[in-house]
Amino acid sequence: MPYPEIMIQGMRQELSQIGIEETKTPEAVKDAVENTDGTVMVVVNSVCGCAAGGVRPGIAMALQNSDAKPDRAVTVFAGADIDATDVARNYFTGYAPSSPAIGILKDGKLVQMFERRDLEGRQPQQIAQALVSAFQEHCARTEAANN
């Protein structure tokens, strides 16, 4: 049974207010991953304390403090967007389901994965630093690509 929307609304808004698109259906997730040229950051949001204390603030810091950013950023909510979350996790090949989690996909293929174990217990600054490094590695446009 999904979490009541009234319980998670504020947690959803923390990401949507910084420009991360909510994908509440399997079709929306598939569209984001399969119809975006370049990179997509897929965030599996969660009610847990590590999502509130580290992950959501860390994502916000990373997006504010990096010149390189994913071409698109989307989120599903574990425990609420159940079918959409399952589809998102299908793109995280080789990784067990976890929440929160952050996957960076390039041209539909997973290139960087942050599982709960990579995020839990980390300060927002640490998460932001790891994301900025991943953005620079996977999302930076080269001069040749820009010409």
Structure commentary:
The protein starts with a helix and ends with a helix. With 147 residues, it is α/β, with parallel strands linked by helices. Strands 1-3-2-4-5 form a five-stranded mixed beta sheet, sandwiched between helices. It has one domain (5-125): Glutaredoxin. α2 runs parallel beside α4 and α3 crosses α6 (124-138). 47% of the residues lie in helices and 18% in strands. The chain contains seven helices and five strands.
**Tell me, what's the shape?**
globular
Our Rg estimate from Cα atoms comes to: 14 Å
Highest-level CATH class:
Alpha Beta
N-to-C span = 50 Å
What can be said about the biggest beta sheet?
A: 5 strands, mixed
CATH homologous superfamily label: Glutaredoxin
CATH fold node name? Glutaredoxin
Strand neighbour order, sheet with most strands: 1-3-2-4-5
Q: DSSP strand (E) fraction?
A: 15-25%
Query: What is the number of helices?
Result: 7
What secondary-structure arrangement, pairings included, does this model have?
Layout: H1 5-16, E1 21-22, H2 26-34, E2 39-45, H3 49-64, E3 72-77, H4 82-90, E4 101-106, E5 109-114, H5 116-119, H6 124-138, H7 143-146
Helix pairs in contact: 2-4, 3-6
What's the short story on this structure?
The chain has a single domain, classed as Glutaredoxin. The chain is of the alpha/beta class and 147 residues long. The chain has helices at residues 5-16, 26-34, 49-64, 82-90, 116-119, 124-138, 143-146, and strands at 21-22, 39-45, 72-77, 101-106, 109-114.
Give a quick set of tags describing it.
globular; 147 residues; alpha/beta; Glutaredoxin; five-stranded mixed β-sheet
